[in-house]
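Margin note: ligand = zinc ion.
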Amino acid sequence: MSEIKVIDPVPDFTKFDSRLYLGMDVGGTKIRTALVGEDGTIYAFLKEKTPRDCEPEVTIQAIETSIHALLEYFLLPQNRITAIGIAIPGVVEPQSGDVVVTPNMNLTGIPLGKRLSAHFGIPVFLGNDGNLGTLGETWLGAARSSRNSVGIFVGTGVGSGIVIDGKLWTGAGHGAGEIGHIVVQTPAMGWKARLGNLLPESVVTEKVPDFPVCGCGNVGCLETFASRTAMEHEIQEALKLGVQSCIPELCEGDVSLIKAGTLAKALKANDPLVTVIVHYTAEVLAYACLTVRHLIDPEVIVLGGGVMEACHRYFMPIIEKITEADRLPAAPSQRRIVLSQLGDDAVVLGAVALARSGMNYGENPAEDVKPDSSRPKFVWNETLGVMNVGSKVFDSDFFVDEQGETFLRTETDGKIHRSELKSFVDEQISQIIIGVKGAEEAQKLKVTEKAIDFLTLKGIFVRVCPMEEAAEVMNCTTQPTVGVFFIK
Ligand SMILES: [Zn+2]
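Resulting structure:
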C-alpha cells in the first residue's frame, strides 16, 4: 500500500460537520483517491498502482482497498462520506453507474457504481476522466471564471471534455467530448485518384494516405497525430531513418518508451529532431483548437496533460499564433486558450464536482466559483492617460510582478533591459505583457538584445499590446504573467 499524503491543515473531522467526498481517478497505471471538502479543499490523497494483466475483480478490490485505507487513516466511518465520484478512462453510463468500455484497462461491462455503492453504502457517481478533468478545471482551475469550456489533455492519448453552461455535455450516448478522436485527416481517397482512367496518363494522382490506426480502431483521429504516443512513434521512425538525436542517450538506449519529461529535456538541449516533432504536434493541436472554436466557441480552452505540462513553453506560443491568425470572423469576446492549473488534481476534483451535483449539492460547479481576488484589477483610463491598478493610479511607467505587486520603473531611456527583467521575472513566468499607448509607441519600443536572450532562454512569451487590451489580459489571464507599462 502506498503512503497517504496529508495536505495541511487537516481539520479535526470529529468536530467538523461539513460534507466530505471522495474523488477517484482510476487510470491505466495509477489509482488516485482524494478526500475532499465541500468547497474543493483536498485534505489528503492516496496513490496506488493499478493492478495489471489481471481479472477485473482484482482492480475492483484495489479501488475498494484505497477507499478503506483513506477512511481508516482518518478514523472516518463510511456514513461520514456524502458521495464518491470516480473518473474512468472510457465510456460510462452515468445514470446506471455501469462502465460501458475501457479500451486500455479491464473494467469493460462492469457495473462498478452499483458494486461500490452496495459495498460501502455510499452513493457513487461515475464519469469519463477527460470530462471530469474539464469539470474540475471549470470548478476550481484555469476555466473557473467561465461557464463554457473545453478541456484538451495531451498525454499518452488525448482526453477531453465539454462544459456548457456550467454542466458537462456528454451527448446522446455519452460519447461527446472525445476530441482525441475527431478526424483531423480524412482517410477518404482523393477525388483525382478516383477518376483513374478518366484522367490522361500524364496526370499523377495522390495515393490513399497511409495513416496510423488509433487505439479506438479508427484512422485519422487527432491522437494519432498529436499525443505522447504519436510523438514517440514519429521519433522512433525518424531514428530508424538515421536522423541524429539525443533521445537514445536520454533513454539510455531503450527508445520503446519516450516520456514527456524526456521530450522536455531534449527540447532544452535544442535537439533538432524533437524540436521538429514538437512544432508539428503543436501545429496539429492548434488546428484542433480552431476546430473546437468553430464548433462550440467556448470562453476557455484549457490545455493540460503530461506533454503539455512538460513542454508548454514550446507549445503555447505556436498554438496562440495559429489560433490568433484565424480568418473566420466572430464577435469580439474574451475567449482564451490557457494552461491547466490543477494538474493531476483536476480529475479528482471534477469527480467530486460530479458527486456533488449528483447529490444536488452544488447543481452547477460554475456557480460556486472562488474568484481569484488576490490580484488587483487593471483599468485603463484613456481620457486621463492613467492606469488604475486596484486602488493605485499610475501616470508614469511601472511594472507588475506575478503576485500583482506594482513598482515604478527607474529606467528612463525607453528600453527594456535584462537587468530590469531579472528583478521581477523568474522561472515560473510564462508570459510578459508590454502595454503601450498606441502603434507609434509600439514602434519606438526597444527591448535590448540581452533582454530578448533572457526571455527566449526562459521560454517566456512576449506580447506587446495597447493599454486597454493589456489591462484586459492582466485581468483575465490564468497563466503566470508579469507586465511592463509605458504610460509616459
Ligand atoms: Zn481514435
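The domain at 4-141+344-368 is CATH 3.30.420.40 (Nucleotidyltransferase; domain 5).
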